[in-house]
UniProtKB/TrEMBL annotation:
InterPro entries xref list: Inh/Omp19, OM_lipoprot_Omp19_bac, Protease_inh_B-barrel_dom
Keywords attached to this entry: Cell outer membrane, Lipoprotein, Membrane, Palmitate, Signal
Name this polypeptide is given: Alkaline proteinase inhibitor/ Outer membrane lipoprotein Omp19 domain-containing protein
Superkingdom to which the source organism belongs: Bacteria
Organism: Mesorhizobium tamadayense
SUPFAM superfamilies: beta-Barrel protease inhibitors
Subcellular compartments: Cell outer membrane
Membrane topology listed for this record: Lipid-anchor
Primary location class: membrane
One GO cellular component term: cell outer membrane
Skewed-composition ranges (Polar residues): 59-73, 167-179
Biased composition range(s): Low complexity: 74-84
Family: Belongs to the rhizobiaceae omp19 lipoprotein family.
GO molecular function, one term: endopeptidase inhibitor activity
Length: 179
């Protein structure tokens, strides 16, 4: 007696369906209930009136919150030189993916060691202006510079120790990179 491949497959499938519906492997889990969750702490909510929006093309700095005095971004020397204790940099020490904070807004920037122009390619992910325009990066001595598509410097940063860089964007906003 010979069976066709299609017939054998149909019989096997019917047997699997019939046997799969009667398993008791998970029946012991039906009796177990998870422990109740601890409620989130509650507090009071305050309500304030927002200022009116600025007209297009104008920016009133008083409408924006300022960074707290204990900000995580280190101050740079006013003359643009490297801060005391800044380490010499290598491309290998910068390569990777960084969490970026620009004036309180966060995003990520990839800094692979893929040659591009006078430095290496860079890839911002959901970054605010001007960091959204980063196309490349390079290191020279103690300084990490992020560049736009025309080779203009968008930000200059220095190592703050460990896996952290602090600096300023070309328009004076504080910027930090951490891993």
């Amino acid at each position: 007696m010979t069976f066709s491949k299609t017939g054998l497959l149909a019989i096997s499938l019917a047997a699997l369906v019939a046997s799969g519906c009667s398993t008791s492997r998970f029946s012991s889990m039906d009796d177990q209930q998870p422990a109740p969750l601890t409620p989130a702490p509650s507090g009071t909510v305050t309500q304030n009136q927002l200022p009116p929006p600025a007209a297009p093309g104008t920016t009133d700095p008083s409408q924006f919150p300022t960074a707290p005095q204990n900000s995580q971004v280190a101050a740079l020397p006013p003359d643009g030189s490297a801060p005391a204790g800044a380490a010499d940099l290598t491309a290998a020490s910068v390569a990777g993916v960084w969490n970026v904070n620009v004036s309180g807004q966060s995003c990520k920037v990839a800094t692979p060691q893929t040659k591009f122009g006078a430095g290496y390619r860079a890839g911002p992910l959901h970054c605010p202006t001007p960091i959204d325009g980063i196309k490349s990066w390079n290191v020279a001595g103690k300084q990490l510079t992020l560049y736009d598509e025309n080779g203009g410097a968008l930000a200059r940063l220095y190592s703050s120790g460990g896996e952290k860089f602090d600096g300023q964007t070309s328009n004076g906003q504080p910027i930090s990179l951490t891993r």
